Amino acid sequence: MADLLVEIHVPLTRRDVPEGEYPFPWIDEVMEFLFELDGSTGEVFDDGEEWDGEYLFFVHGAPEAELISLARQVANLPGVPAGVYATVTDTEADMGGGIRVDLD
């Protein structure tokens, strides 16, 4: 049975870092933020993944409004690139589908 899933889409934008350093440190920062939730407002569904010029984070386990609120929190984390949006879908759908929700 499919569960509600929210994909958090973050443009795969490089951060200005010294040459030779990882240009996307915000990915690890977002993952750490999401794992610290420990199910209090939803939880990570699967590992994040690069998709079509974006990095996707997957959250579920809470009502839609709470998951959208969580996506807004991610969008507002320091260092996260501008242009973050979410899609509301389910755990059995193909990646990148669903209803788009702008987080501005």
Overall description:
The chain has 104 residues and is an alpha+beta fold. It has one domain: Alpha-Beta Plaits (2-Layer Sandwich), CATH 3.30.70. Helix content is 23%, strand content 33%. The chain is built from two helices and five strands; from the N terminus they run βαββαββ. It has helices at 25-36, 64-75, and strands at 4-11, 43-51, 54-60, 85-90, 99-102. Strands 2-3-1-4-5 form a five-stranded antiparallel sheet, covered by helices on one side. The longest helix is centred in the N-terminal third of the chain and has 12 residues, at 25-36. It starts with a strand and ends with a strand. The relative contact order is 0.29.
Radius of gyration, in angstroms, nearest whole number: 13 Å
Q: Quick one: overall form? A: globular
Helix content bin: 10-25%
What is the topology, as strand order, of the major beta sheet?
2-3-1-4-5
Mean pLDDT: 91
Strand content: 25-35%
Uncertain residue ranges:
none
Helices, strands, pairings?
Blueprint: E1 4-11, H1 25-36, E2 43-51, E3 54-60, H2 64-75, E4 85-90, E5 99-102
Antiparallel strand pairs: 1-3, 1-4, 2-3, 4-5
In short:
This protein is of the alpha+beta class.
Descriptive keywords:
single chain, alpha+beta, 104 residues, 2 helices, Alpha-Beta Plaits, five-stranded antiparallel beta sheet
